[in-house]
Write a structure and sequence with these properties.
The protein is of the alpha+beta class. The chain has 4 domains: about 240 residues, Histidine kinase-like ATPase, C-terminal domain (Heat Shock Protein 90, 2-Layer Sandwich); about 140 residues, 2-Layer Sandwich (Ribosomal Protein S5, domain 2), CATH 3.30.230.80; about 90 residues, 3-Layer(aba) Sandwich (Rossmann fold), CATH 3.40.50.11260; about 120 residues, Heat shock protein 90, C-terminal domain (Four Helix Bundle (Hemerythrin (Met), subunit A)), CATH 1.20.120.790. Helix content is about 40%, strand content about 20%. It contains 21 helices and 22 strands. The protein has a 9-stranded mixed sheet, covered by helices on one side. A 5-stranded mixed sheet has the order 10-11-14-12-13, with helices on both faces. Bound molecules: adenosine-5'-diphosphate. The site of adenosine-5'-diphosphate has 16 residues, from helix 3 and helix 4.
Length: about 650
């Protein structure tokens, strides 16, 4: 009685956070395939809890008893219809349990829901682990889940229980020693998860590489020594996983199948990796790395919760689940494991950041991964195109951020060009080989679509000259090509920026003749454009707006605005095609004198269409339409 009112012992019912509720409802009602992955998630949580405790005990020896054997135990109670997954890891306090299992929604919750709705994760519940909400997968097979936990260093245990349905309960409990039991009350139709055989199968399939033993009491029939016809059943504890640290084996000793399994273990990806790189470094820094390049982007790579980097081990002890210092940000899709012999066991995140050993590891991995990508690009075009379609954007960031390797990374970039069919790719090296005699620079245009690029007036004179222009369709491409600056000694230039004159002389002559008109247009557009000049890039269109050399590309400007960046308006230059009949006619009017109002209207129309061609609206769309209509009426009445 006393206990009931003390508050400590009281059973409390707490509501799930709304998003968690939503997630649970989806898990229960919509995820039908691959339900067996619940076991991987729970074993993985148990293993993390052991890693955490081992790590903490390095500095606080009192947390564990000397000689503790860390393990994860599966226990079946066929009568009760329960399966329990128990660990002797770090455990959780009452606050931890309440917080972690239902009252806060990890940002992964929303993201997983979004991925399910968008279809990215549809049919693949196994992705749940990528989002950091793996615990809830228990509800795919259980209609009730109980968690009993005791935190290392504490004497109080807690029991959490829920049948989903909006809330969970917490109360004080008893537990011997630190760690956590997750008890699943299996749904009627999931009772096959009580079979030893089935559990063994799932553990070998998904959790074979877990470093800690996953054990289970297994019944075996043994023959009586004296009378072989008599059999008795004995129960023995069996370790179900091989616990092989395959990264420490020599590559020749590891099978493809083992690599694949290990990859799916570390990445939660259901496809095999595109490339596997396994190597041991000796010398100034001693470490082993086994890293994988995925073929598809991890679904959560763009979310803020994404944890980049391979696992970090120091002499077989796991230090970190994801160590982002081991790879440069532009290779953040690389998964795997690094086992270092140089780092101290109690290395902290802060220490890793400027650690020379880590730097050596990062350099080595970067080189190996870029080599592997080059191999893939040279030998397996289709697969590389898939990879590039998914992760090329991320990889290209390296051109901007990794000065020493920018040309190497640029060589890996695929892009379309005026010479390729839509949807087909070329690259910078192939472009160089096709350059026309006399062409000194590499040209590119950024665009939101191939169709728009093909129709772009900015490319007219390039086409007339037979010069190829690279067509870049990622928003970030302009920054990236500007950062590249040069490739194998050739300058890289945007077709929409600066003064490009491909065949100077004839145009120059005509341009001189336009002097008066130019002055008139300049005066008219004062404050709207930085300058007006005769164009060397147009052949068929009368005019276009260009950025100054080194200025911001229009697509990029639009993207940055869309992202809420404050940007001063970019000053552009209006280029006028001196050979165009309209410009010539305007020039004739101007020379004849008078008709200023009409000319003024023409200039405004010219400027409006130049904005349209760049992808903007005319400054005053209504006035633009009115002027245009006026001219059309005039023409129709002729
Ligand atoms: P994740 O493990 O990716 O963070 P989960 O939904 O699987 O996401 O688990 C949520 C949290 O619950 C974990 O981060 C951890 O703090 C806690 N937790 C789950 N299982 C255990 C366990 N066996 N021992 C200790 N803590 C656990």
């Amino acid at each position: 009685m006393h206990d009931e009112v003390s508050g400590l012992m009281k059973k409390e019912s707490i509501e799930f956070k709304a998003e968690v509720n939503e997630l649970l409802s989806l898990v229960i009602h919509s995820l039908y395939t691959n339900k067996e992955i619940f076991l991987r998630e729970l074993i993985s949580n148990a293993s993390d809890a052991i890693d955490k405790l081992k790590y903490e005990s390095l500095t606080d020896k009192a947390l564990t008893e000397e000689g503790t054997e860390f393990r994860i135990k599966l226990a079946v109670d066929a009568k009760a219809g329960t399966l329990a997954i128990s660990d002797n890891g770090i455990g959780m306090s009452r606050e931890d349990v309440v917080r972690e299992l239902g009252t806060i929604a990890h940002s992964g919750t929303r993201e997983f829901l979004a991925a399910l709705v968008k279809g990215e994760a549809a049919g693949h519940p196994e992705l749940i682990g990528q989002f950091g909400v793996g615990f809830y997968s228990a509800f795919m097979v259980a209609d009730r889940v109980a968690v009993v936990s005791k935190m290392a260093g504490s004497d109080e245990a807690v029991r959490w229980e829920s049948s989903a349905g909006g809330s969970f309960t917490v109360e004080e409990a008893e537990r011997e020693g630190h760690g956590t039991d997750v008890v699943l009350f299996l749904k009627q139709e999931e009772k096959d998860h009580l079979s030893q055989w089935r559990l063994k199968e799932i553990v070998t399939k998904y959790s074979d590489f877990i470093e800690h033993a996953v054990v289970m009491d297994v019944e075996r029939e043994v023959e009586d020594k004296d009378d072989p016809s008599k059999k008795t059943t004995v129960t023995e504890e069996e370790t179900l996983n091989s616990r092989k640290a395959i990264w420490l084996k020599r590559p020749a000793e590891v099978t493809d199948e083992e690599y694949k399994k290990f990859y799916s273990h570390v990445s939660h990806d259901f496809m095999p990796p595109a490339e596997t790189t396994h190597f041991k470094a000796e010398g100034t820094s001693e470490f082993t790395a086994l890293v994988f390049i995925p073929e598809r982007a991890p679904v959560n790579i763009l979310y803020k919760d994404f944890k980049p980097g391979p696992m970090l081990y120091v002499r077989r002890v796991q230090i970190m689940q994801n160590c982002e210092d081991l790879v440069p940000p532009y290779l953040r899709f690389v998964k795997g494991v690094v086992d270092s012999s140089d780092l101290p066991l109690n290395v902290s995140r802060e220490m890793l950041q400027n650690n020379p050993s880590v730097e050596v590891i990062r350099k080595n991995i970067t080189k190996k991964v870029l080599d592997a990508l080059k191999r893939m690009k040279d030998n397996r075009t289709e697969q590389y195109e898939n990879f590039h379609g998914q992760l090329g954007r991320v990889l290209k960031e390296g051109i901007h951020y990794d000065f020493a390797r920018k040309e190497e990374i640029a060589s890996l970039a695929l892009m379309e060009a005026t010479s390729t069919e839509p949807g087909k790719f070329t690259d910078l090296d192939a472009y160089l080989e096709r350059m026309k005699p006399g062409q000194e620079e590499i040209y590119y245009i950024t665009s939101t679509s191939r169709t728009e690029a093909d129709a772009s007036p900015y490319l007219e004179s390039f086409r007339a000259k037979g010069y190829e222009v690279l067509i870049m369709l990622d928003e970030v491409d302009d920054i990236i090509m500007s950062s590249l600056g040069e490739f194998k000694g050739k300058k890289v230039r945007s077709a929409t920026k600066g003064d490009i004159s491909l065949d100077g002389e004839e145009k120059d002559k005509k341009a001189e003749e336009l002097g008066g008109l130019m002055g008139f247009i300049k005066e008219e557009l004062k404050g709207k454009v930085k300058d007006v000049r005769p164009s060397g890039r147009l052949t068929d269109s009368p005019c276009c707006l260009v950025a100054q050399e080194g200025g911001l590309d229009h697509n990029l400007e639009a993207m940055m605005r869309a992202m809420g960046q404050e940007m001063p308006p970019q000053e552009r230059i209006l280029e006028v095609n001196p050979t165009h009949p309209l410009v010539q006619a305007m020039d004739a009017r101007h020379k004849a004198g008078g008709a200023e109002d009409e000319l003024r209207e023409y200039v405004s129309l010219l400027y409006g269409q130049a904005r349209l061609l760049m992808g903007d609206r005319p400054e005053d769309p209504a006035a633009f339409a009115k002027s245009l209509n006026k001219l059309m009426v005039k023409d129709a009445e002729k």
